[in-house]
Design a protein that fits this description.
Layout lengths: L1 E6 L2 E4 L4 E9 L7 E6 L6 E6 L5 E3 L7 E6 L4 E6 L8 E7 L3 E2 L3 E6 L1
Parallel strand pairs: 2-11
Antiparallel strand pairs: 1-3, 3-8, 4-5, 4-9, 5-6, 7-8, 9-10, 9-11
Length: 112
């Protein structure tokens, strides 16, 4: 089993930045890709970004150019640097190891 622990959420003004972290433990040798999803109130969970062991990244169109996903394989940690945050980025952000492992979620709130 793999366990995920997230940190770094909070309240930020529009245009500001936050960095989320997610550290994996347990059967980490089985991890290939890692990523982030988010879920806003009343909306479906949506994919934000993913990164493979080799560093290949993929982003939702809504965050391209503003968010950067990275990982430190020596620390089993994935990061999500979020810049130029917008009101519509407000959501609970979940770390994800495909296909079925999820973190507990961390709240990101962007205020005007």
């Amino acid at each position: 089993q793999v366990q995920l622990v997230e940190s770094g959420g909070g309240l930020v003004q529009a245009g500001g930045s936050l960095r989320l972290s997610c550290t994996a433990s347990g059967r980490v040798f089985s991890i290939n890709a890692m990523g982030w999803y988010r879920q806003a109130p009343g909306k479906q969970r949506e994919l934000v970004a993913t990164i493979t062991n080799g560093g290949t990244t993929n982003y939702a169109d809504s965050v391209k150019g503003r968010f950067t996903i990275s990982r430190d394989n020596t620390k089993n940690t994935v990061y999500l640097q979020m810049n130029n945050l917008k009101l519509e980025d407000t959501a609970v952000y979940y770390c994800w190891v495909p296909p079925f492992v999820w973190g507990q979620g961390t709240q990101v709130t962007v205020s005007s």
